[in-house]
Amino acid sequence: MNYQVTPAEKSTVKIVFTFTPEEWAAANDKAYLANRKKYSVNGFRKGKVPKHVLELYYGKGLFYEDALNDLFSEHYGETLEKEEKNFTPVGEPSVSLGENFSEENIVLEATVPVKPDVVIGKYTGIKINKFEYTVTDADVENDIERTRERLAENVDVTDRPAALHDVANIDFEGRVDGELFEGGSAKGFDLTLGSGQFIPGFEDQIVGMAIGETKDVNVTFPEDYQEESLKGKPAVFTVTLHKLTGKRLPELDGEFLKKVGADSLESYRAKVRERLETSAKNRSRNETENSILTEIAKGATVEIPDAMIERQEEESVRRMEYTLGYQGIRLDDYLQYIGSTREEYKKNFAEEARIAVLHQLIVEKLIKELNIEATEEEVGAKIAEQAASVGKEKEEYEKSMDPRQREYIEGDIKVTKLFDYLEANNEMVLFTEEKKEPEEKKAEKPAPKKRTTKKQEATE
Predict the structure, then answer these.
(1) Tell me: the pLDDT tens digits for 349-358?
(2) Which of 141, 202, 353, 459 is the most buried (most CB within 10 A)?
(3) What predicted TM-score, i.e. pTM, was given to this entire model?
(4) Where are the domains of the chain?
(5) Which CATH superfamily groups domain 2-113?
(6) End-to-end CA distance of the chain
């Protein structure tokens, strides 16, 4: 066997395998031995029919497909190993027969998507937005309130009307044009007011109702409602409120502190602040890094193979599947609800996937171009840090490490060094978002207004 590699379109290479007649004959014999038990011919015991007899009965090419598959499987992997310095495959090959295939001309052509070489323009001396998120006293108190909400007790409400965040147990009947419609009625339904579970306006009109009260709720279905016959239609729901359940928040006392693992309110606040500051620091870093890559990407050119985009799309779907699962929702059920298939839904992530792949290619190229390395001392320090976090000595922890863990640590150190370099060698500007307006409106005003970005909640 010999092979030849040539570059092809859209970041692929074509590998042409040429096999000798002897190799082809041996592959056919192997395929015959592996598959002969599947066939029977009168006068022969099953599995004992000679190869030439089977070919007479079933056709000369009976074992061709299996023989070709064997030849390709045997030689494709070793070819990739020989060419590993020249290209990196990023997807499954597309395999076809060469022209004028015969027992004397056995040629297979494999088109392989490979990691492309991104051409990067300017990556230093650029004005780039830098993000910084800080933690305020209000952030700490809000986080504590969310913890109180999480630990709250459910209690029956009997002495007041319905309020936002109550769970209202209701019966309802919906009518459009005076007629009941499918799915518009239920009895004993628990609805959290303010959750947005029902169409706009419905939950707001339950607020203020008294237990035992019945009233008509007037709403209009959104124009983008999933049921075609109800889009934009006004509806009247007759609602009866049976029961209200509210929440009783725990006091900030010793019992609460015991539940959250703190000795005092002051130490608990300090613990919350530390966690939020770590989260804010990570968020600042992540958004700044994304900002850097976004600016560099404007001057980069690359032809990304479809296989890399599709793999990233699938990763995005898996993350969504995990997120939904954490909320107790199956992805299949969610897709059925929105009327989509997995493949259709995956395409929603196409642009996000393209950007993610491009950014990763830029990172890899710059690390190589700038000769960024992770020293043994740096790797050892990271391993010691991880060992300490699980209460182990570095030597003990290192013995149990998977080789991929070490590779990840080395990669993480290189990426951190790269972004440190890029921050130091570009003009980093603290981010403010300019209010965008049409050009004609801008001309009417002496200067555009500016506002700082809204402070978002720091999360873990």
Answers:
(1) 999 999 999 9
(2) 353
(3) 0.74
(4) 2-113, 153-248
(5) Trigger factor ribosome-binding domain (3.30.70.1050)
(6) 56
